[in-house]
Amino acid sequence: MSENNRVIVASGLQKQVIAPAANNASEILSILTEINLQVAAGVSVAITGASGSGKSTLLGLLAGLDVPTAGSLQLFGQELTQLSEDQRAALRLGKVGFVFQSFHLLEHLTAVENVLLPLELAQVKGDLKQRALTALDQVGLAARAQQFVTKLSGGEQQRVALARAFVTQPELLFADEPTGNLDRHTGQEVAALLFRLQHDYQTTLILVTHDESLAAQCNHWYRLADGRLHRQESV
Amino acid sequence: MASYWQQWVRRWRLSEMRLLFLALWISALAVAAVGFFTDRVESAMERQASQVLGGDLVLSSSRPLPDEYRQLATRLGAKMAEVVSFRSMLSVGETAQLVQVKAVSTNYPLIGELQAANNLTAAGVKAQLPASGELGAEPRLFHALPAPVGATVKLGRSEFILSSVVTKDPAQGVNFFQLAPQVMMPLADLPATGLLSPASRAEFSLLFTGSERVIRELKASLQAKLAPTERVRTLQEGAQNVQQALQRAGRFLGLAALLSVVLAGAAIVLTAASLVRHETAAVAVLKAFGLARRRILVDYLGNLWFLALVAGILGALVGFFLQTLLAHWLVQVVAIELPPASWTSAWVSIVTALVMVTGFALPALLRLLDTSPMQILQGSLQAPTALVGVFMLSILPAIFLLMWIQARELSLTLWVFLGLLVAVVLFWWLAKLSLNGMARLSTRQGWQGLALLRHGRRSLLLVVVFAMGLFTLLLLTALRTDLIGRWQASVPADAPNYFLINIQATDQANLENFLKQQNIQANLYPMIRGRLVEINGQPVTADDYPKPEAKRMLEREFNLSSFAVFPESNTLLAGQWFDANTQGFSIEKGIGETLGFNLGDRLSFDIAGQRFTETITSVREVRWDSMQPNFFVVAAPGSLLDKPYTLITSLHLAPNQPELIPTMIRQFPSITAIDTSAVLGQVRSLVEQATLAVQGVFAFTLVTGLLVLWSALQAQKPERQREIAVLKSLGANSRSLRRRIWLEFLWLGGLAGGLAGLLTLLAANLLGFYLFDLGLSLNPWLVILGALAGAGLVATAAWLNLRSLLQVVPMVLLKT
Ligand SMILES: Nc1ncnc2c1ncn2[C@@H]1O[C@H](COP(=O)(O)OP(=O)(O)OP(=O)(O)O)[C@@H](O)[C@H]1O
Ligand SMILES: [Mg+2]
Q1: Helix H or strand E encompassing B136
Q2: What is the pLDDT of residues B703-742, one digit of tens each?
Q3: Ligand 1 atom closest to A59 (CA)
Q4: What's the angle, vertex CA B312, arms to CA B705 and CA B470, rounded to 5?
Q5: How far is A86 from chain B (nearest CA, A)?
């Protein structure tokens, strides 16, 4: 793995939070103790772990949504810990996609408008509408483009979310339990779609999941426990 | 990025956005409607007042006025009429009568209309000025002479025909205590009479009307040039009775308008908070996708401002329309012509919407920007809670600004603002106390029904909002009732319509007898003329006072009186009224303020060459619109009766007693009777206008209050929907859900109403006392009535608003 094609380099990442407890007291909670991780461009990385082990926290740190308590983290070669919230946001703009467990589509928008959103945010030029429709077509939802997302089923909503994530052809995609809210069958469909798109666009993928069969399909698999990542060999 | 328009259209789909629009629109509508309406009523009242004055500005002098002033007025574009008035003898054959001659230019009157009749029994109709060689005269001249209409009379060197009975001269109110009957003649005929020599005493007046700007400029230019004998009067210094009514009505209208703005503000804050709750997820997602805070802020602000602009414009339009309807309807009820509305109110309503959205939504929005994108990965989204500091820095100044825009009077704004702050804090505290008490009670046997109030924060918010709304309505109702009752009492149907002056002391007993025989109620007051010469032993002259009204008071003689019975139309403010043994003066509050004396000071008057000195022992407030004889200074009963005096009284004469005055004058020839029914009529129609305005504005405030109630409920709808779905999934049937809604809101409404009633009781007394000169009254019914009205109103509104939620299918739970 050469120096310059590493998308994420994390070393010695720690995350502690002050958790308010009863009686107005508060205690320091150490969620991540020592995270070292390097991710090369185009690969897929799975992170699994027990509920509450800190997977989402780690994902948020890697994406620059939050800052670590200690350690260093580079995203696209930029040291994130030095940047302000807005500077970190600018780094993500147009280059990073997200897929969430509970979809987080904007309810008052139609399917195509949700997909348009990241294109508009990144101020991409050209026929945005066409690109959005193409992205919806890729996830098999061209026919539902004009519907409000609240009218769609869970699986369909997650497919819209996939279209939204891939429409900017991001270099890096974060997915937090993308199949967590779906039944087994639908989950498999969505996962297949995710891997296909990731392969087509050569996107780097960080996938947090409970589903070991999903994790096994990734190039690398780490298990998060005691605030550390443990390399897991695919079976 | 998509165009703002596109974004706006998308965001419009948010129910909060529509609600915000509704709240903004309603407040803009209320402001516009109230503004347009009060504007019209105020200008109607001002017009009435300037009619009494004769113009918007009157310049008068005891010397002929130089042409320079006429040219100035023409140059500035003011309309002008000219009046010369003086006393003279008018004769028919052998009989002569002192008359007040009023020679007027052809465009008199500038405001209002002259009414006259062809004979003494006919009602007056709109009439032209007397033609050259003709005179119009008050009815009492025909009685006094006596002479028929059409008689030839002699005035100075000229002969005139007494051609008409003037029943209404719009500008007569100015000179209320006019002794002689008035005769109106064309100004062009005046020189021929030879009555005006340089030495003769006359008042020369120029009456002006024009736009506010023109009058302002004219006044300023005139004041720079005035000779010592000349003075300028404008509306503000016009007849006192008119002014007092105007002031009170204006204050009430201002208060009503600004309370309705505050009510609408509450709706905006509620809706903005719920918008933020909804948008938290969206902002977190946008941030995750890499959007900077600044762009998010600009984007939301742009959207909201556009929303406010549209709401403001629509509000102004619909407000104008509503106001037209209301004015139209009320004009039919009370038959008063309202002048057209000005467009200022449209601007005010648009500015109001913009200030509201900025001031009320901004703090919530700024907090929204702090939403951590991390939240999106955690299960639950926490809506940011507004910081107290931001709240103070944004919402409070916004409310203050809005109030100020409405009231345009800093001190009133300040007081109401502080009052509202105290009210909110009190409501918050009392509501919290009561709700906690109820929650504790709900754990006891038999009180489980109260359990549904345990939803602490939500209930607290509702109670405070409802209480504020109900408080506003109750307060305005209480004040309105007092105010209108008081006005109507001030000009009752049997208010005096005649003044009798110049009653000789020797005639007193006989006149009292005469009036008693005619069943007429009248109090005779002695009237003594005196000049104020010393205050606390220090000589005073007009030169000691910079204020023109103070100068004027000292240049004239005062009318002093002395009597034992405290007049009904007065209020004792300080000190003690006279009893059998006391000496002293009782003064009117205003004159003390103008001339700078108060309780305990010693005043010396020069009465017919003799010095009369007493200490001020009481201060009264006088209702000048009472149509009763009123005096600035009253001495202890009997103390002045050794001085030369005449008596004065006022009485009410029914229309079926037209012979009474002529009979009385024949019997007591020295008495001068002044018909004040024209003035009375003007005061009465003024009161009608004020009442009209107050009713109209109150109606608007009522509607605003109801709509705030509605938006408070609307803001909680999503939460309640989920709650009802959960209850349903747990097996609640619609009957029990219905019962739940009714019970909860009956309690909340009752609590809010009771608290509102309690505070109204306090506030109405305070406000009534300080702003409207009303007495104190403690009415426990207000609390009970408030609780009942609150329970009924809130529960009904809640039911109508939440009814549709009962249809919710519990499936929604699985969707989000
Ligand atoms: N801001 C915070 N304050 C307090 N505790 C926090 C905070 N953020 C995370 N935690 C705690 O840290 C732990 C890890 O949370 P995280 O959401 O990362 O777990 P997870 O591995 O994603 O769990 P799951 O599989 O259930 O999604 C949890 O116990 C959570 O309660
Ligand atoms: Mg998680």
Answers
A1: strand B134-137
A2: 777 767 777 777 777 778 777 777 776 667 778 788 888 8
A3: 18
A4: 10
A5: 5
C-alpha span between A116 and A112 (Å, rounded) = 6
Angle at CA of residue B126, ends B124 and B132, nearest 5°: 100
Q: Give domain status of residue B484, yes or no.
A: yes
Give the largest CA-CA distance in chain B.
Answer: 111
Give the separation between CA B296 and CA A90, rounded to whole angstroms: 13
Q: Are B236 and B677 in contact (CB under 8 A)?
A: no
Inter-residue contact B322 to B26 (CB < 8 Å): no
B5 in reach of chain A (CB within 8 A): no
Show the domain range for A133: 40-67+91-231
Which residue out of B1, B289, B296 would a mutagenesis test of the A interface target, given it has the greatest number of A Cβ atoms within 10 Å?
B289
Task: Please indicate, yes or no, whether residues B664 and B566 belong to a single structural domain of this protein.
Answer: yes
- Mean pLDDT of all residues belonging to chain A: 89
Tens of pLDDT, residue by residue over B385-414, are: 655 666 677 888 888 888 888 777 787 778
Identify whether the C-beta of residue A211 lies closer than 8 Å to the C-beta of residue A179. Answer: yes
Reduce the DSSP state of residue B117 to 3 states and report it.
strand
Is residue B56 included in any domain, yes or no?
Answer: no
pLDDT tens column, B440-491:
776 676 666 666 665 666 778 778 878 888 888 787 777 777 766 766 666 6
Residues 6+ apart with CB under 8 A from B714: B19, B271, B801
Amino acid code (one letter) for B426: L
B255 with B362, same domain?
yes
Burial of B520 (C-beta count, 10 Å sphere; 0-12/13-18/19+): middle
Separation of alpha carbons B748 and B738, rounded Å: 15
CATH of the domain at A219: 3.40.50.300
Beta pairing class for B558-562 and B633-635: parallel
Range of the domain at B473: 2-46+243-490+683-815
C-alpha neighbours within 13 Å on the C-beta side of residue A34: 1
Q: Say yes or no for a CB contact (<8 Å) between A89 and B291.
A: yes
Of B14, B290, B374, the CB nearest to A92: B290
Tell how far CA B427 is from the center of its chain: 28
Which CA distances in Å does B130 have to A165, B137, B483, B549? 91, 10, 42, 35
Report how many domains make up chain B: 4
Split into its structural domains, chain A has a count of: 1
Is residue A58 predicted with pLDDT exceeding 90? yes
Using DSSP's 3-state secondary structure scheme, residue A13 falls into strand
Here the ipTM equals 0.81
Q: Match 């405030």 to its residue by tokens.
A: B701
Place of tokens 């002008």: B80
Chain B residue numbers with beta carbons less than 8 Å from the beta carbon of A108 are: 10-11, 13-14
- Pairing status of strand B79-92 against strand B202-209: antiparallel
In this structure, the residues whose C-beta lies within 6 A of any atom of ligand 1 are: A 17, 19, 29, 31, 49, 51-57; B 378
**Greater model confidence, B768 or A213:** A213
Count other Cβ atoms within 10 Å, centred on residue B121: 9
Ligand 1 atom at shortest distance from the alpha carbon of A31: 12
